[in-house]
Write a structure and sequence with these properties.
The complex is a heterodimer of chains A (113) and B (111). Helix content of chain A is 0%, strand content 57%. With 113 residues, chain A is mostly beta strands. The mean pLDDT of chain A is 89. Chain B is 0% helix and 55% strand. Chain B has strands at residues 4-5, 10-14, 19-25, 32-38, 45-51, 56-59, 62-67, 72-77, 86-93, 99-101, 105-110. Classes of the chains: A mainly beta (113), B mainly beta (111). Chains A and B meet through strand 5, strand 9 and strand 10 of A and strand 4, strand 5, strand 9 and strand 10 of B.
Chain lengths: 113, 111
């Protein structure tokens, strides 16, 4: 049990839909992350939050919109996605932003039709 | 431009033998390296790490070797067990604390 949960585990959406991914960590960590895992590609860091403030946005398209209402919850709001956005989206947390060891959730498998 | 490369997409090893997973990097500013293991339908879990001031770190069956001059690190698993079958990710960190990840290597342990 990682202490990081993600919902839903699987999501299929059309390009005109709006959906949200949810991540919750029960570890008392101060930093949270969104990653994208495409097949046979390196994990891509999307967003970093530290103490609920966004500290990093790695040139992610605006159709992905993160939200961090408190240090335990992280959302990724999705709208007008493209088929190439289909991937596994992983949430992670760490004690501090500078901590090297991150704890990952199980991921949300997203399919955009 | 991948700064961390795992050139073998998959590796098949007989149970009981040694598994060697390789990782190359290009950025000489990386000072901390980690290996993560991922089972299907789960997120990556931390396995072992090494600081750039060391060239070897051992934890049970797992040993990570770092060759800074070659910008190369490897993970040795000995003896390999069926439960080791998973995807292994190499990751590197610099002073900005971002983790840069390789694409992963799928390890298959044959009985």
């Amino acid at each position: 049990e990682t202490g990081v949960t993600q919902t839903p585990r699987h999501l299929v959406m059309g390009m005109t839909n709006k959906k949200s991914l949810k991540c919750e960590q029960h570890l008392g960590h101060n930093a949270m992350y969104w990653y994208k895992q495409s097949a046979k590609k390196p994990l891509e860091l999307m967003f970093v939050y530290s103490l609920e403030e966004r500290v990093e946005n790695n040139s992610v398209p605006s159709r992905f919109s993160p939200e961090c209402p408190n240090s335990s919850h992280l959302f990724l709001h999705l709208h007008t996605l493209q088929p190439e956005d289909s991937a596994l989206y992983l949430c992670a947390s760490s004690q501090e932003q500078g901590s090297d060891t991150q704890y990952f959730g199980p991921g949300t498998r997203l399919t955009v039709l | 431009d991948q700064q961390v490369k795992q050139n073998s997409p998959s590796l098949s090893v007989q149970e009981g033998r040694i598994s060697i997973l390789n990782c190359d990097y290009t950025n000489s500013m990386f000072d901390y390296f980690l290996w993560y293991k991922k089972y299907p339908a789960e997120g990556p879990t931390f396995l072992i790490s090494i600081s750039s001031i060391k060239d070897k770190n051992e934890d049970g069956r797992f040993t990570v070797f770092l060759n800074k001059s070659a910008k190369h690190l490897s993970l040795h698993i000995v003896p390999s067990q069926p439960g080791d079958s998973a995807v292994y990710f190499c990751a590197a960190s610099d002073s900005n604390y971002q983790l840069i990840w390789g694409a992963g290597t799928k390890l298959i342990i044959k009985p």
